[in-house]
Design goal:
single chain, about 375 residues, mainly beta, Methylamine Dehydrogenase, Chain H, 4-stranded antiparallel sheet, 1 helix
């Protein structure tokens, strides 16, 4: 029997229905494929300064070395320790070479030539306690754990010069100081001499000369009042000083840069008082007699995070303006430069939360480690900009 025709020149009904079904299937497959391509496409880069090198998925906490031999430490979004190394050949991940230590986290790094030191904390099995950890990399590229004295606590920063290594942090409300020399490691805890501000922690350290060290941090009275703290170590003896000479100076010091025993710079932030909340930069200089605090750097909502350079006349200070402490806030990288006896505003480099910096090429700007401003739920994004 001949097939049914709808009219002269028309296709059979079954052919038309089949073609429509096939077209529908193809459209469904195409839409699914386009959707998968869209979902697998990398997200747009975060709002960071132009030319920055992104380290997505990483929360880098410290930077050391030179512009052509950079070291940075931090952690992944899952909390695993990370070491990133940049040379003229590009970036390399050295995390896999670290010693396997329970709960290892790295907060500070120092580099002296081809020798690198990183400091942080490890976990005590079966407890919530932490122990201070220092790991070192020899010029051949091997990482080893330093044999520190037993004790709890954590380390936030490390400095190295020759065979001398100093690391600072906190232990049970007192400042923890670790010293390494020629493979021998010792530790000490430092209490505040101020009867009101008894809880002490250190956040940065710098070596002024062999046997002479400066460290900075904060001291708290336990009720929420926090004051800047400076600690000076010489010949193995430490003198902590709670800064009360500035009003209100309810804040902390987060960076120290010692060019010599008589040329030491510190920076941080003044967080105001409960009656007058603000964030202003703290910038102090020691020239041998007393601390002098520079009030000419009067940016509002601004904090200092790094001091780098070669001489007092060539110093750079990195800071952030805006809501830098708010993970959803708007923050910008700001640079100021020491010219003669004054600080000159070099302007805003772009968006980002300032973390650390090292000296750049001669006559150039510092190399800066920053963090992108993202929501608390988004993965961390760190970046390096020269």
């Amino acid at each position: 029997m001949a097939g049914v025709q709808d009219g002269p020149g028309k296709r059979p009904a079954w052919w038309i229905a089949g073609r429509a079904l096939l077209a529908g299937l193809l459209a469904t497959v195409l839409a699914s494929w386009l959707g998968s391509c869209e979902s697998s496409s990398p997200p747009p880069p975060p709002d960071v300064p132009q030319g920055a090198h992104l380290l997505p998925g990483l929360r880098m906490r410290a930077l050391a070395g030179t512009a052509s031999n950079l070291w940075s430490v931090g952690e992944t979004g899952g909390g695993a320790p990370v070491v990133e190394h940049r040379t003229d050949a590009g970036w390399q991940d050295e995390s896999g070479r670290l010693p396997t230590l329970p709960g290892l986290r790295l907060f500070g790094v120092a580099a002296d030539g081809n020798t690198v030191w990183a400091a942080g904390q490890g976990a005590v099995a079966g407890t919530s306690a932490t122990v201070p950890v220092v790991v070192g990399r020899d010029p051949a590229g091997t990482w080893r754990q330093a044999g520190l004295p037993a004790g709890e606590g954590y380390l936030t920063a490390v400095a190295a010069a020759g065979s001398e290594v100093w690391a600072v942090g906190e232990q049970s409300g007192r400042a923890l100081i670790i010293h390494g020399s020629g493979g021998t490691w010792t530790s000490a805890v430092l209490a505040s001499h101020d009867t009101q501000f008894q809880s002490v922690q250190l956040s940065a350290v710098s070596i002024a000369a062999p046997g002479e060290v400066w460290a900075v941090g904060s001291a708290s009275d336990g009720t929420g009042e926090v004051r800047p703290l400076v600690a000076h170590g010489t010949a193995g003896r430490w003198q902590p000083t709670v800064i009360k000479s500035i009003a209100p100076a309810w804040g902390e010091l987060t960076t120290v840069f010692a060019l010599s025993p008589l040329d030491v710079w510190v920076g941080g932030r003044d967080e105001g008082t409960p009656d007058s909340v603000h964030i202003w930069p703290l910038l102090g200089h020691w020239a041998g007699r007393a601390w002098r605090w520079d009030t000419s750097v009067d940016h509002d909502s601004w904090t200092l995070t790094a001091l780098v350079g070669g001489t007092s006349a060539g110093l750079w200070a990195l800071g952030g303006s805006g809501q830098c402490s708010d993970p959803n806030g708007s923050c910008n990288l700001v640079l100021i430069r020491r010219v003669g006896a004054n600080w000159v505003d070099e302007g805003t480099l772009g968006p980002g939360i300032p973390v650390a910096a090292v000296a750049g090429p001669p006559g150039g700007r510092p190399v800066i480690l920053g963090r992108a401003v993202t929501s608390a739920e988004a993965p961390p994004v760190s970046f390096v900009v020269s």
